[in-house]
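Quick one: structure for this chain?
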Amino acid sequence: MDKITRTVHSNLHLVALGSNATEREHSNVQLLKQAVAEIKAEGLVTLRLSRLFSTPAFPAGAGPDFVNAALVVESPLPPEGVLTILHRVEARMGRVRRERWGQRVIDLDLLASGDRVLPDEAALRDWMALPLAEQMRRAPDRLILPHPRMHERGFVLVPLADVAPDWRHPLTGQSVREMLAALDPAEIAAIRPI
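Got it. Here's what it folds into:
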């Protein structure tokens, strides 16, 4: 049993990274590399880092294309502590939250912490069922885990399949690989490794 499988219930955290700060892919790549270095400097142990991928902005027209990646990090901190670190890194790198899903210098999302469901199953199911128009208007006022939209987003699942293909969603039971296979092939075809 490898380390990823052995500690899934305790201190492993899945993190999505993205940047579309500029229209120059190279600059966005450098920002992701800087974010990974900052995350390590904060004490989160990086176990696996995915390849980098060029992905269309979501929603369409929200800015230049993104560069996305995924990390598996290990920390004894609770999910809220890991999220605090991610937000601190974003702030140091110049992230300002002006508009939902707008252009951003860096975006660090805590996707999952082991098999935890936060704050509870009912709240997670409500956020998972939220229509897209509502998602664009509302943001959660507390940490929701696993990320309620991860199963719908190729730009999250493609990099995540590099580092945690067998991680299973605690509510749906689907692995990352299975969630990815359920997406529209045209969406996946628009995501390319860099």
